[in-house]
Design goal:
By secondary structure, the protein is mainly α. The chain has three helices and no strands.
Amino acid sequence: MLQVRRTLEILKASYMSKLELAAKLQSETNTRGMKDVRFHLSALQSQIEWKVQRTAMAQSTLKNAYQNYATCVNLASAAAAYKANDTTKGLTLLLAITTPLNLVASIMGMNVYPLNTVFVTEDSDAASPWIFIVVLIVFAVITIVLFVVAKLACNLRLC
């Protein structure tokens, strides 16, 4: 791309120097005996002007092609970012569900008082399972709230 751009610049500069030379020769041939030379120089000058215009159009076409290529690259990049965003959204929803449950499992798995005295039996001497049930219900509610908030955020296009 850069090489083509340089070549077009060199070609345009070459045509411009030839155009200047043709204009100079035409202005120097003002005598009446050189009408044919002036006519041919005028035709040559118009051909060089046409080639300069074609070179400028080629430069413009090259510039537009590069802009189209850059736009295609940006679109492909946006599509890849959209896929990554979808994956991140799925992972966020998964974490919204599993994180509170992991916290409950971690807390209940500790060997500390009063958590180590929770029994699920009908024995009157055993501690009641209310601590476990309350913590389980609280974290289940937190999980549901996080899931609903995540779904609402995705529906509102905030994620």
